[in-house]
Amino acid sequence: MSVGSQVMSVGYGRAFASYAGPQKKPVIDGSLLREISEVACLENQACARKVALAAAIWDSCVHQTVQIGEHIMDAGNYAASETAKALGCSKTVADTLADVGMDLRLRLPAVKAAFEAGELDLARVRAIYRTTNCYSLEAAQRAESEILHAARRMSSGPLATEIAATMQRIAPDETAELRKKLASLTRVRYRHKDVLATIEADLEAADAAACWQLINEMAATVCNRDPRTRNQRLAAAYSALLRREEYLPCSCTEDEDHPCSAKREVPDRRAPLTTVTIDLTTLAGLSDLPGYLAGHGLIDAEYARELAANGDWQLILTEASNLAAKLGVDGDKAAGLASSVGLGGGGAAGTPVTFHPLGRGLRRRGSSFPERAASGSLDRGPKVPVGGCYRGSYTLIAAMEAAIASNPALAEAVHPDGHGGFTEPPAGALSYRPSAALADCVRHRDRTCRHPGCDVPAASCEIDHVVPYRHRDPARGGWTVSTNLHCLCRYHHMLKTMGVWIPRMLAGGADYWVSSSGTTAITLPGSVVGTADLSGESLIPHIPRKRLAKCSTDPAEPAVASATAAAGSAADTADPAPF
Ligand SMILES: [Zn+2]
Ligand SMILES: [Zn+2]
To answer: Which of 78, 208, 336, 576 makes a 20 to 30 Å CA pair with 520?
Structure first.
């Protein structure tokens, strides 16, 4: 302890309290403990207010209806999108806050009062909500005072267990019924998409126990000299099971004295549907720009090359354009902004660039790519200072917001008629469904849903006409051209159709959103390509999903190629890539 803290204090200097020397017991100043309790109480009170407001926003919306053609829909879904935008959280979190708030208001007045008094935190209130909201009002009310008693003394995990026991005692019949109903709530989620990502499953108890057993059995197929930790073996076993492999290859070091008693052959793995986008120079080992793993996010260059070498690949020719200039934001200012925050490069080189797909090559089977050059010879651009300023695409968004504030004309759609500047409709522009190639280009450009804050991957999105398509008179409606199409997940597509969030497409594929309550937001296409040398930084967790560019060529020149390597086993075809 003393060694560790002394080592740390070298780095942090005066940030630490002075060293008190050896003593019998550690002591903490009582005033610090009192203050942390008081601050927590204030935080809980504010949180109770936040939850009540989320419920009030939902409540006000649900009593309004929207008529779309012949359908009447309530505006309840819209509430979550506004709350999510205001809080910077996901729609799921916003929904939960509103649900908790309504539940407290309608069913649990004593818990609500304790929350408002600052006695309970959100974690415990959520545990109470989660464990009681499927019970009848009558059962919840009978249990409330007991639950509150427990909640004042326990943290959220043990509290949930305690409440389950209480409910079983108070309402045994309902509990038995519920067990059957809860079986319908099983699900698997893909979360925390950083260097490590989480796949999480809510299963019925017996299923979960059986799966856990299978993972442990698979992990035990290596010999006992395998160098991995138990956690690492379990993770490898989990992945091997999903790939329908028979065993986990042992990774011990074998020699004459220590023969391996397990199987060691690494099975041939071909993930069928993952798509990695990687810059051509990076693929060739000449530079180190991050790649993009569809449905996940940015990955470092070395990992991208590793995945690409093992897959099919397809060349996509893209046109690069300087986004700041296209958007009418002062290019120098945006560049200045970029270099002032450490992106350097000078002139337009520091401003974000969009890459608009122009054409595609045939798909080819992966081959061996050049080894990465020795690190000294890499073109990594200027060294940037680590830490400090934010350098992602939101730098440009901030510049745009400021520009629009002083000149609202910048927020007008570049093609308000949705015709993309064409006077005659090009081929396919009057049919509702975009061609496979066009859809592919739009998905490649957008990468995710284009509603602010949404990260549903483009592959799971619908392709939406920004200016609506008119089925009865296609020539007069929005056309099916790339400048009038973007990706929206089903949920945000529905809100757009309701007319509660309306997008306008600006130059360069930027979207300007306005909600019916007047909230505005700008989103950029996901293919705004980045540069910054990430190798010197601790990569995640703060990589912006969209990247800021430093383009070494003139950004106006349409000569940048990127390769899409699909880690798949499809034959040499001209099929659209699976993103
Ligand atoms: Zn072994
Ligand atoms: Zn969305």
So the answer is: 336
Q: How many CB atoms lie within 10 A of CB 561?
A: 15
The ligand minimizing its distance to the Cα of 225 is: 1
Instruction: Please report which ligand is nearest the Cα atom of 487.
Output: 2
**Average pLDDT for residues 54-68, to the nearest whole number?**
89
Which residue stretches of 289-446 are H helix?
A: 301-308, 323-326, 331-340, 394-406, 436-446
Q: Is 160 helix (H, G, I), strand (E, B) or coil?
A: helix
CA of 228 to the centre of ligand 2 (A): 39
Question: Closest ligand to 248 CA?
Answer: 1
Are the C-beta atoms of residues 298 and 545 closer than 8 Å to each other? yes
User: From residue 535, how far is each of 254, 290, 531 by CA, in Å?
Assistant: 34, 9, 11
SS3 assignment, position 279? strand
d(CA 391, CA 573): 39
Q: Say if CB 564 and CB 275 are below 8 A apart.
A: yes
- Residue 336 and residue 343: Cα distance in Å, rounded? 9
From the CA of 451, which ligand is nearest? 2
Distance 173 CA to ligand 2 centre (A): 40
Ligand nearest to the CA of 227: 1
pLDDT class for 571, splitting at 50, 70, 90? very low
Q: Is the overall model pTM greater than 0.90, yes or no? A: no
CA–centroid distance, residue 246 to ligand 1 (Å): 16
21-57 in b/e burial notation, b at 16+ Cβ within 10 A?
A: eeeeeeeeeeeeeeeeeeeeeeebeebbeebbebbeb
Residue 555 Cα to ligand 2 midpoint, Å, equals: 30
DSSP code, position 224? T
Instruction: Round to whole Å and give the CA distance between 333 and 348.
Output: 10
For Cα atoms 500, 502, 505, give the angle at the middle one, nearest 5 degrees. Answer: 170
